[in-house]
Amino acid sequence: MAHYRAGDSRREQFCRYLEKAGVLDMLTQVLDALYEEPEKPNNAMDFLKQHLGTAGPETADVETLRLEVIELRQKYELLLEENKDLKAKLAQFDPPKEEGQPE
Questions:
Q1: Do 24 and 18 contact (CB within 8 A), yes or no?
Q2: Signed CA dihedral, 55, 61, 66, 72: sign only
Q3: Are residues 20 and 35 in the same domain?
Q4: In principle, which of 41, 50, 65, 100 could form an S-S bond with 55, CB 3.0–4.6 Å?
C-alpha cells in the first residue's frame, strides 16, 4: 500500500505545481470558453491551441511571409535564367580551352 501513497503524493505535488503556475486556471478558462461556444468547432485541439496561444504566428504574418517566399522564388528563377543566358553569351566569346593548354 505504501506504493500507492507515494504515487498519490507525487500526483498531489504535481497538482499543486500546476495550480501554483496558473496552468489549472488557464486550462479551466479555455475549457469554459469552449463549453460556452454556441457552435462547437470541428477541431477542439485547434481551439485549445489558439486560445492557449500556441497556434503559431498571426495569420497575416504567415500570409505576408508566404507571399514573400513566392516572390523570392520567382526572382530566383529569373536570376537562374539570366545566369544561363549570360553563360551562353560568354561561351560565344570564349574559345573552348583544350586540355594541356595554359589558361
A1: yes
A2: negative
A3: yes
A4: 50
